[in-house]
Amino acid sequence: MTIEFKEKNTLGGGWSLEVKRGPSLLGHIRRRPDTGTFRYFRGSQNQLTPSYENADLEALKAQVANNP
Questions:
Q1: Over the range 12-41, which residues count as b (16 or more CB within 10 Å of their CB) and which as e?
Q2: How many CA atoms lie within 13 A of 20 on its CB side?
């Protein structure tokens, strides 16, 4: 199955992408408000420890798709 990225609005006007493989939620991509850098958090409940970080969203999505 392929990795899908689904945009999701969060409380307070925040933004994130859900990273899914079929019905399974693998993690989230969120943008750091202080630097604008995008970070991938592996796991459905992980909000503290990013696995990857990149200023380029498309590059980060490619990295996540290769190793979610």
A1: eeeebbebbeeeeebbbbbeeeeeebbbbb
A2: 12
Is residue 57 a contact partner of residue 39, using CB atoms and an 8 Å limit? no
Pairing of strands 52-54, 3-10: unpaired
- Over residues 21-39, the pLDDT tens digits come to 999 999 999 998 888 899 9
> Distance between CA atoms of 59 and 47, rounded to whole angstroms?
21
- Do 64 and 58 meet the contact criterion of CB atoms below 8 Å apart? no
pTM to 2 decimal places: 0.88
Distance separating alpha carbons of residues 20 and 54, to the nearest angstrom: 19
H/E segment holding residue 60: helix 57-66
